[in-house]
Amino acid sequence: MAAKIVFKRWENVPDVVNVTEEIGKIADKYLRYAASAKNEDKAQARKTWGQLSDKYWDLLFAILDVQTESFPSVLTFDEEERLFIDFGFLNDEITPRNKKFDTFLALQSKFSLGVFAYRSFSDFIADCWGMITGNPLPVSPFGEKTEDKVEALERQLLSLQETRNSEILKIVSRSKNMTGTDLEALVSDMSKTLITATKVSMRTKEYREAKSDVKQAMSQDRFRYNEAERVMETQLSIAQKDEEDPLGLPELEMFTALHESAKILARKIIYCQQESGKFRRKAEKISQACAQFSPQMMRKELKNMLTKKKEYMAVPAKVARCEQSLLCPQDSEPLRYETASRIMEEMANMDMDMFAVPRIRMYGVPQVIFIPGQGLGTYDWADHTILLPVFPTTSLEKSIAYGVGTFRWDSDEDRLLKNAYETIKDNKGKSILEMASSFHKDYFLWITKEKKGYRILPRDTHKTFLQMFALRKQEE
Mapping DSSP to helix (H, G, I), strand (E, B) and coil, where does residue 378 land? Predict the structure, then answer.
């Protein structure tokens, strides 16, 4: 008999107990069928596992119903509940874990800092309740407030610039082509004006709506930065041609990567600064829409929001053609939040032009939500979120690339990507769905291989991707 499913907070609450007991009965049937060697029982085992998987939502809604009954200002979940909600874990008899699934490490895993806002599924549920009730949103135990994140990124940028400045001083001093004063002014201008110059280049709201004198000052900062960068590039060229101690290609590439990293980080800081206001406005809009709701209607609205999410949470498994279950699989270990978010940020570094699409300018950078179940990442158009299953199939990199690739394709409202991609010979005659599927595969190879210098894609596809992802750069 399957071990009893117990949630300590609700072990004496009939509505929760009734669902867990029902799950236990189905689990008993499943385990009996799964242990049988008969072919007909194997088929029954698959059918019963599907019934068991469907009970995920019944149990989730039962837990939320009993917790929202007292109408708390904030929804909180203990470790047992988070293991169930975020990873689909019931107990080791019904959902035996992979030997690499360390529940302590899974619950303590934290998100890396970056341009995206990362949430576990339990975080997302708590956020929904906060927006519906108009209460302050809870701070995720895995992340930081936007303000803290911006400060941390700014510290990273300062450290990165100091390293970059130290390297350029070493390079230029080798040729003795610039005086110490001029050299110090060069690195100072690049460091002090980078953020403002980036705001002007991105034509942020702060720049567009600034008073004429402020706008002029910001434009002057951009000019100072561009001039400093031009002088720096000249000095690098001189250093390469130095007869006594020429700058080698590996050194130049390392420095260029360092300089580009500083520019990318500056853009991320600005996006993060902009996101705080956009997400706050989204929360206020939902709160205002629900302001006249009775407590009972607010509880129902939470269920409505999650029911809509349910449809998109089935997509990752469909795309990967794997088992459509939100319960914990035995044959996989879950991703670690810090690893997944680090890879996500690295991919963003290689495709920063994704943040220039109109959909982001209107709705902000999409949140990344880690959902239970298996599959490949996807994009939820209705809620403007990227969904990443905690048990990715094939590889974590592929799952994330599919999530980003789906966002890139679905947010291409001006058809800059689609019009070019459909001209590829192999795509002639394909339906829009077939082309989307093909694009996701090609984008995965583009972002994980081609952007790192490996030629993988067919020549025609490679040339088209160069064309597609050069278009955004021309628009800035």
Answer: strand
Q: Dihedral, CA atoms, 282, 284, 289, 294, nearest 10 degrees?
A: 130
Residues with pLDDT less than 50, the chain? 473-476
Spatial separation of the C-alpha atoms in residues 323 and 317, rounded to whole Å: 6
Name residue, tokens 């599919």: 402
CA pair distance 472, 70, nearest whole angstrom: 50
Nearest to residue 370, comparing CAs of 52, 120, 53, 55? 120
The pair phi, psi for residue 371, each rounded to 5°, is: -110, 155
Place of tokens 């072990």: 11
Q: Give the up-direction half-sphere exposure of residue 15: CA atoms within 13 A in the CB hemisphere.
A: 12
Instruction: Give the per-residue pLDDT at 474.
Output: 39
How far apart (Å, rounded) are the C-alpha atoms in residues 359 and 366? 9
Burial of 362 (0-12, 13-18, 19+ CB in 10 A): exposed
Arithmetic mean of pLDDT over the chain = 91
How do strand 367-375 and strand 378-380 relate by DSSP bridges?
unpaired
Question: Could you give the angle at the alpha carbon of 123 between the alpha carbons of 121 and 126, nearest 5°?
Answer: 115
For the stretch 174-190, pLDDT in tens is 666 666 677 778 888 88
**In a 3-state reduction of DSSP, which class is residue 212?**
helix
Amino acid identity of residue 356, one-letter, is A
Smallest CA-to-CA distance from 333 within 394, 376, 392 is with 392
Q: Residue 202 in contact with residue 269, Cβ under 8 Å?
A: no
Decide if 320 contacts 314 (C-beta within 8 A).
no
The 8-class DSSP code of residue 71 comes to -
Helices marked H in 88-145: 103-108, 121-133
Nearest alpha-carbon partner for 390 in 62, 196, 124: 124
* pLDDT, tens only, 69-115: 999 999 999 999 999 999 999 999 999 999 999 999 999 998 888 89
Report the pLDDT value the prediction gives residue 242, as an integer from 0 to 100. 83
Looking at the DSSP assignment, which residues form a beta bridge with residue 375? 392
pLDDT reported for residue 475: 39
Place of tokens 């101690």: 245
* Closest to 172 measured CA to CA, from 236, 117, 215: 236
Between helices 146-175 and 212-241, what is the axis angle to 10°? 40
Q: Tell me what pLDDT residue 140 has.
A: 62
Contact 387, 369 (CB under 8 A): yes
